[in-house]
Amino acid sequence: MTRLFEMVAKPLATIQTPGTFLGGLRLMAVDGTVFDVPDTPANGKVFGYPGSPPGTYPAFAKARLVFLVEAGTHVIVDALLSPYGIGERKRAIQILPSVGEGMLLMWDRGLHSFKMVHAAIKQKCHILGCVPANVKFEVVKTLGNGSYLSWVAPDGKSKKKGAKRIPICVIEYVIEDNGSDKVYRLTTDLMDISTFPALILAQEYHTRWEAENTLDELKVHLLGRKTLIRSKSPPEVVQEIYGWLLGHFCIRCLMFVPKCFRSRNLAIRFEFYW
Asked: For residue 166, what pLDDT is reported?
C-alpha cells in the first residue's frame, strides 16, 4: 500500500483550479495528526503511547502521521507514518523532498524552526509559516506595507555546522477572535511587496486550514468510527492507514479529474473490482 500511494499521489490542480495558486505558486501545506491503534503488545512496542498522569494508563497506542497536502484540492501528495515518540517537527522536515520549485509551502507555528526554514528553502520552494509568540525578530528594515525584513537565526547545533542566518520578511497582523484580538506573525522569503503584498499573503496563509479540513475528511467522514484503526499488528496498521489515504486520494481525484487530466501526456484511469 505504501508503495502504491507513493506511485499515484500527486498534485492535481492546474493554474485554472480555484484556490490552488498564488502568483504562479502552487499552495501546499504540511501538517500532522495521530491515529489511535489497538492496544496490542506489538502495536504498543512499535508505535508507543502518549504520556499519562501517574496511576493511569493510555487506552490506545498511537501512530503519528505527517502529511503534505495541496491546499486547493485537499489532495494528500505525501505522508510519513511513524511511532508516536518521533516528533512532528522532525517528520515534517523529512517530508520536504516532496516539495520543490514553483510551490509555496505553509505550516503552523508548531513547526517553525531554523531547520524547517533552511530545509524548505534548500528544496527551492517558497515559504509562508506562522511563528510562536516567544520567537523574537530583529527589525532590519520596515517595508511600505507594514511588514519588515529580518532573519532567522540558526540553532546551536546548526551554527556549529556553519549554518548562516536566513533573511526573511515578517508579517504581523491582528484578527479578532471571540471578542479578543489574536496576533499572528508570519515569515516568508517572498520579499517583493508589489507582487506579494502582506495583506494577500496573510489572507492566503489561512488557506492552510484546508489541511485541517483534509484531516476532517479523512478521520471523520471517510473513516467514520470512534476507534479509527482496526489492525492489531504494526504491518497491518501501516497497510490500513495507507489504504485510507489511497481511498481519500481516489475520491478527491474523481472530483478534479475532468479539470486536471485533459492532457495528451497525462491520463488517469480507475478500475474497480468487486
From this structure: 98
Residue 37: per-residue pLDDT: 93
Q: Is 270 contained in some domain?
A: no
The CA distances from residue 215 to 118, 168, 210, 270, in Å, are: 27, 30, 9, 24
**DSSP output for 158-190:** HHHTT---EEEEEEEEEEEETTEEEEEEEEES-
Q: What is the pTM of this model?
A: 0.88
- What is the CATH classification number for the domain harbouring 237? 3.30.420.10
User: Does residue 149 lie in a domain region?
Assistant: no
Q: What is the pLDDT of residue 263?
A: 47
Q: Which pLDDT tens digit goes with each residue over 177-232? A: 888 888 899 999 999 999 999 999 999 998 887 777 787 787 776 666 555 688 99
Quick check: is 87 in a domain?
yes
**Res. 256: pLDDT tops 90:** no
Q: Which domain holds residue 51?
A: 2-128+204-260
Residue 47 lies in a domain: yes
Beta strand pairing status for 103-107 and 126-130? parallel
User: How many structural domains is the chain composed of?
Assistant: 1
Residues 6 or more apart in contact with residue 98 via CB below 8 angstroms: 68, 77, 78
Q: Which residue has the cell 479523512?
A: 218
Q: How far apart are CA 93 and CA 240, in angstroms?
A: 24
Which residue in 29, 21, 55 sits closest to 260, CA to CA? 21
Angle at 66 between CA 134 and CA 102, to 5 degrees: 85
Measure the CA–CA gap between 9 and 74, rounded to whole angstroms. 12
Q: What is the pLDDT of residue 85?
A: 95
Residues 190, 126: contact at Cβ < 8 Å? yes
